[in-house]
Amino acid sequence: MKLIDFHCDTALKLYEDASNLKQNDYSIDIQKLKKANSLAQFFAMFIELNITKDPLQKCLSMIDKFHCELNKNKDSILLATSYEDLVYNKSKEKISAFLTVEEGAVLKGQMSNLRILNKLGVKLITLTWNFPNEIGYPNCIPEYMNKGLTPFGIELVEEMNRLNMIVDVSHLSDGGFYDVAKYSKTPFVASHSNARSITNNPRNLTDEMIKLLSEKGGIIGINFYGEFLGGGQNSRIDDMIFHIKHIKNIGGIDVIAVGSDFDGIDSTLEIENIGEIHKLITALKKHKFTESDIEKIFYKNALRLLKEIG
Q1: CA 37 → CA 71, 90, 214, 271, 297, distances in Å?
Q2: 24 close to 31: Cβ distance less than 8 angstroms
Q3: What is the pLDDT of residue 207?
Q4: Do the beta carbons of residue 33 and residue 77 sit within 8 Å?
Q5: At a CB cut-off of 8 Å and minimum separation 6, what does 168 contact?
Q6: What confidence category does residue 135 fall into, taking pLDDT thresholds of 50, 70 and 90?
Q7: How far is CA 72 from the centre of its chain?
Q8: CATH number reported for the structural domain that contains residue 294 in this entry
Q9: pLDDT per residue over 49-94, tens digit each?
Q10: Closest listed residue to residue 302, CA positions, set 128, 166, 178
Q11: How many domains does the chain have?
Q12: Above 90 in pLDDT, residue 18?
């Protein structure tokens, strides 16, 4: 079974600790990706705005560090910026690495910075994290939940569409979600979120959102964080199955993907690293998901979205 995972924070770990992508003590490295039969991994350049003096400069430094790691390991993993790149990398038996940014404030409200990041290989931007920025508002602060995108945020979505970049609404306010659904002409994603009606956390999507995301051809990547799954400190496979079943019932099998959030969560993990992803396959089979269903969740839905966006 191939795998495409839409979100991890491993790049920050590598940047902060001068660790290696090939092999490390975190949940994702090349050896573990090979064990998972990974087709592609999305690596987030995560910026914590309240402790970062210059978010753009830090983001550029992280991208530089990650490019260096890719260069050192090009026998195993290659940068991908498109569906065509992924297909080519697969033909060479290489894992694809997609670069993402988690915190739209790195753009500093300037469209030129978006185009610079795009040229450096960034494929996806998570519009907000836990702080308001020039694009919109986070879903973790109640008074912001119904606020939509700013005028710059709307222009940004349109420019990302033009550049074949993926718009990510995880962390975004409910109002912002509906604005993205309104203004985006291509499918968008909630790269690492779950179902709010199962676990009532604002980071998860409501049933109405799941339906709309499905109608727009988007995907929701199942997040392994215990708090979002409903297990508190514990990240349990049974809770993942519960969310997956519900999302399938609401939005259909074609809306579900994987967005582990590995190396960005502090839960006690039943699936400790990406190399143990077979445990989720086993559980899905036990719960009567078909081979076709599991393939869609693990990589085919992601492939379809990437092909449509370009």
Answers
A1: 21, 11, 27, 15, 14
A2: no
A3: 98
A4: yes
A5: 100, 124, 125, 126, 127, 188, 189, 190, 191
A6: very high
A7: 24
A8: 3.20.20.140
A9: 999 999 999 999 999 999 999 999 999 999 999 999 999 999 999 9
A10: 166
A11: 1
A12: no
Q: Above 90 in pLDDT, residue 154?
A: yes
The span from the CA of 226 to the CA of 206, in Å, is 18
Nearest-angstrom CA–CA distance, 97 and 95:
7
CB of 130 closer than 8 Å to CB of 104: no
For 199, residues 6+ apart whose C-beta sits below 8 A from its C-beta are: 227, 228, 229, 230, 243
Percent of the chain topping pLDDT 90:
100
Contact of 120 with 65, CB cutoff 8 Å: no
pLDDT in tens, 205-251: 999 999 999 999 999 999 999 999 999 999 999 999 999 999 999 99
| Three-class secondary structure assignment of the chain | CCEEECCECHHHHHHHHCCCCCCCCCCCCHHHHHHCCEEEEEEEEECCHHHCCCHHHHHHHHHHHHHHHHHHCCCCEEECCCHHHHHHHHHCCCEEEEEEEECHHHHCCCHHHHHHHHHCCEEEEECCCCCCCCCCCECCCHHHCCCCCCHHHHHHHHHHHHCCCEEECCCECHHHHHHHHHHCCCCCEECCCCECCCCCCCCCECHHHHHHHHHCCCEEEECCCHHHHCCCCEECHHHHHHHHHHHHHHHCHHHEEECCCECCCCCEECCCCHHHCHHHHHHHHHCCCCHHHHHHHHHHHHHHHHHHHC
Structure tokens at 249: 């019932």
Contact indicator for 278, 2 with CB cutoff of 8 Å = no
Which amino acid would we find at residue 122? V
Domain range for residue 251?
3-309
**CA 136, CA 253: separation in Å to the nearest integer?**
30
**Identity of the amino acid at 289:** F
Residue 42: strand pairing partners:
98
Residues in the chain: 310
